[in-house]
Amino acid sequence: MQPTSSMNEEFLKKWQMGLQIFRPSIDNTSVHERKKAIKLSADVAMASLRKGTTCWSRALIEKTATEDNFLVRQMLSGIKAEALINKKLPKKIVCHRKIVRRSKKILRRKSKSASEEAAAKAKRLVKRRTQGLRNVVPGGELMSNDVLLLQETLDYIVSLQTQVNVMRSIVDAAEAEIERTVCCSENAIVIRGWRDYSKPFCT
Amino acid sequence: MDLSEKDEFSAEKRNPDNYDSVNNPSGDWRVDSYPSENLISAGPASCSPSQMMDSFGQTLWYDPTSVQAVGYAGFNGGNASSSSFRGSIDRSLEMGWNLPNLLPPKGNGLFLPNASSFLPPSMAQFPADSGFIERAARFSLFSGGNFSDMVNQPLGNSEAIGLFLQGGGTMQGQCQSNELNVGEPHNDVSVAVKESTVRSSEQAKPNVPGSGNVSEDTQSSGGNGQKGRETSSNTKKRKRNGQKNSEAAQSHRSQQSEEEPDNNGDEKRNDEQSPNSPGKKSNSGKQQGKQSSDPPKDGYIHVRARRGQATNSHSLAERVRREKISERMKFLQDLVPGCNKVTGKAVMLDEIINYVQSLQRQVEFLSMKLATVNPQMDFNLEGLLAKDALQLRAGSSSTTPFPPNMSMAYPPLPHGFMQQTLSSIGRTITSPLSPMNGGFKRQETNGWEGDLQNVIHINYGAGDVTPDPQAAATASLPAANMKVEP
């Protein structure tokens, strides 16, 4: 499933809405703050597209709420904001490393055959990667099973693609516009120069 | 292609095909959606064939009676990367390895190869039962299969083999499977095969379009009585009334499973969110008799244990979970570009992680870029919306060459897009920018230099090697530099 144009538009609208909140205070901000504002509003817009149905969106909104509660509340106006922010996310899964390591050692001692070790190694690899994925996907730590994690990842990837597409299109458009205006202004200067230069010849 | 060959050699094909489907990095590693053509032509490229061959050659070929255990071990030995993939593959492979008993061992080199080379020598030794071959071929086609013919056939071992052959893989073959009446008695095989039939029926389901959790509706053969009592909390079991012939039953059920993809949609309860609780047994959802069409929508997914498999609730739930995971991985493979050739969970997960990280970094980078490009942050986007430029965007592409530190490659947009955006944006952005172009650019340039370093730190904050900011600034953002510094 690829991001659809309707998704793009929705995201754009919500993002615009978020950016509007920053407009009044724009003159005092540095580049970093602007960038942060852009990114946060984009994230909230992306998460709100899902309307709280997915775990990652809730986690993402909560994460941005810790950085800029005001923005989040403004963007997600209405009951939804309250529900999303206050919604209790499932507890983080905490693994006591010592215990896990000990039990793994015991297991390793038992299984000596090469094939079993290979299988165990593969399992370990997969587990490590799954943990890595949990770190990357917002709210991944809270997902109890792998199936859910993969599903959330799927949805998250699609939303990220939407976000990236829209942002890139805007950047391209803005840059192209700047280049265009620069060229125009440069051309104007050149023409003016020529005119001045050619004046003595005319008269 | 090799379809004619396939018809004849479908039986033998299944073995290498299964093997391929698991170990072939160039093919789709998903078992359930392996196209039939690939089965024929794909050859395992780099999956330690010798290693696998050794394990198989030594164990499976000559020791049919202990196939299950051995095959499992051998399989695992050979395929480290898909350990959790075992659920669907290895059992079928176990069964499949029963088949080789019929065929004289070819030697290691022949075992793994692409199906076409594998087939001819084996064909010679294959039981000279043309009927078997034909039936095996026909049986191997799940989706179109008409199992009703098979229902009343006593399922001999050869039949079982044929079933297995089909079951092992992702059969969407062209042959119609009507009956399978192979005349090679082989006790182990029959047991294994029954399982495989169910397995194949289960695997066939994912082939059916539109059925999401197809695999959860596997039906076990009734030969061993009512298996499959145990379920996870999300599964309900359909009780099968004793059907006289286990094979018939299983074939019938396979047919049923084939025929009711739509019904499965009803029954299936996509309760992905609920955790897997293998310990629970829920017999509440049992249905008597045929499970053809009327599963009550009580939110349970029926799973039936396969014959010969443990009916432990743990293993059943485990199997369901594994199939769900493999299904999700399939979707992810479609989504992440460049992952079609990746086999195995670990590598796939790695790719997914990289992709997500790269997308996140892109967002950071683009937001930084936007912050600098447009200090007023007055992105006037009505023009974009109006000009449906976003529709052009829907396919995820970009005109600007992306920095090389990003792992994805994006195809360039058609030029038309740029003109449109120019025309739409031009009216709006020009005015605020034009009076201060020179100053703006200089300021922007300075801003870029300072901020590039920050961007780079952000980008590499995840723990990658921090490159030299200068080098990165010049090398990694060529597009920006080109625009910003004339």
H-E string of chain B = HHHHHHHHHHHEHHEHHHHHHHH
The unreliable regions of chain B are 1-124, 142-292, 390-485
Q: Estimate what percentage of residues of chain B fall within beta strands.
A: under 5%
Total strand segments of chain B: 2
Q: What's the β-strand tally of chain A?
A: 0
Instruction: Bin the helical content of chain A.
Output: over 70%
Secondary-structure element order of chain A, N to C: HHHHHHHH
Described by its quaternary structure, the protein is: heterodimer
What does the overall shape of chain A look like? elongated
Q: Estimate the helix proportion of chain B, in percent.
A: 40-55%
**CATH C-level name of the domain at 313-374 in chain B:** Few Secondary Structures
The overall pLDDT average of chain A reads 78
GO biological process, one term (chain A): regulation of DNA-templated transcription
GO molecular function, one term (chain A): DNA binding
Domain IBH1-like N-terminal (chain A): 5-66
Protein name (chain A): Helix-loop-helix DNA-binding domain superfamily
Describe the SSE topology.
The complex is a heterodimer of chains A (203) and B (486).
Chain A lengths: L4 H18 L8 H18 L6 H13 L1 H7 L3 H8 L10 H14 L3 H23 L9 H57 L1
Chain B lengths: L2 H21 L12 H6 L7 H12 L6 H12 L7 H13 L9 H4 L3 H11 L4 H10 L8 H4 L5 H12 L18 H21 L27 E2 L9 H14 L1 H7 L33 E2 L10 H23 L9 H29 L8 H5 L2 H5 L21 H19 L3 H23 L9 H8 L1 H7 L2
Parallel strand pairs in B: 1-2
Helix pairs in contact in B: 1-5, 1-7, 1-8, 1-10, 3-4, 4-5, 5-10, 5-11, 8-10, 10-11, 11-12, 15-19, 19-20
Task: Provide structural commentary.
The complex is a heterodimer of chains A (203) and B (486). By secondary structure, chain A is an all-alpha fold. Chain A contains eight helices and no strands. In chain A, α1 (5-22) crosses α4, α1 (5-22) packs across α8 (146-202) and α3 packs across α4. Chain B is built from 21 helices and two strands. Chain B has a two-stranded parallel sheet with strand order 1-2. The model of chain B is unreliable at 1-124, 142-292 and 390-485 (pLDDT under 50). The chains are: A mainly alpha (203), B mainly alpha (486). At the A-B interface, α1, α2, α7 and α8 of A face α4, α14, α15, α17 and α18 of B.
